[in-house]
Amino acid sequence: MQRKILTIPLLFFSVALPVFLMGMAGCHPGYLKKTGESPPAPVIHKVVVVGFGAVRTAAEKPGVVRGPISGSVYAGGPVPGVAARIMTDALFDRMVESKKYQLISPGQAKGVSSSILDSDECLGVGTVRLLQKIGKAFGADAVLAGHIYRWQERAGTDYAVNRPASVAFDLHMIRPEDGRILWKGKFDKTQRSLSENLLDWAIFRQGRGRWMTVEELALYGLGKMLKEMPGGREGGEEKKP
After folding, report:
1. What is the percent of the chain where pLDDT is above 90?
2. b/e per residue, 156-184, with b = 16+ CB within 10 A?
3. Sheet holding 181-190: strands in order across?
4. pLDDT at residue 146, as a whole number
5. Are the C-beta atoms of residues 187 and 235 closer than 8 Å to each other?
6. Which has more confidence, 166 or 199?
7. Confidence band (pLDDT; 50, 70, 90) for 64?
8. CATH number of the domain at 42-226, out of 3.40.50.300, 3.20.20.190, 1.10.10.10, 3.40.50.10610?
9. The whole model's pTM is what?
10. Which end of the chain is more exposed for a tag (fewer CB within 10 A), N or C?
C-alpha cells in the first residue's frame, strides 16, 4: 500500500500562505457565530464538567451517527473506552488551568448522574434533561458535556502513514434552568498532508511536520475549541475579591 508523506508544496510560502491567512481571518467553521445584535452574555460562575462519553463502542462498525444534543450528523466509527477518559481528564485539567469558573469535577457529576438514573427510568444517558438535573443538583449555572463519534488511530510512523489519524467530537454548555445551549463547539478532522490540503498548515505546524497520533489530533482540537468558550464571570471578567 502506498504511504502518504507529509510534504510542503513548492512556492507555499511565497504564494499559498498569504491566501491561506486571508481566508482564515474571517472564518471559524464549526463554531457558533454572532449575527446581528447579540443578547447580553449570560453570567456563568459555577460549571459542572460532566466530560465526554463515547457514542459508539469499539465493537461497532463505522457509519453515520447523530449527536444526542445538537442533532448534528457525523461519520461515526469505533470509539475505545480510553478515549472518553483521555478527553474528560484533558478537558477538566484545562478548565482548571483557565481559572474562569468555579468547577464541579466529572467524578462528582458521575455520582449524581448515577443517583438520578437509578431514581428516574425515563432518562437516557447524555440527554439534555439529564444534564439539566445534574446542574440543578449542584446549583450550577451551566453543565459542560461532550460526545466522541470517531477515534481512529494512525497506521504508520511519524513521517509516513498508510492511514492518518481521524477524530470527531463535540462539546456543549447547557443551562440547567431551561436546557438552553449557551455555547457549543465541534471538531471533526482527518489529518491530511500539506500537498493534499493547504488549510492543514496549523496542524502541520502543531505536529512539527509529523503525522499526529489520534490523541494528539484530538487534544489539538480540544485546545482550539476551548479558546472559543465564553469567559465566565461577569461578561467574561473575573470578579475582584
Report:
1. 49
2. beeeebeebbbbbbbbbbbbbeeeeebbb
3. 102-104, 46-54, 142-152, 166-174, 181-190
4. 96
5. no
6. 166
7. confident
8. 3.40.50.10610
9. 0.73
10. C
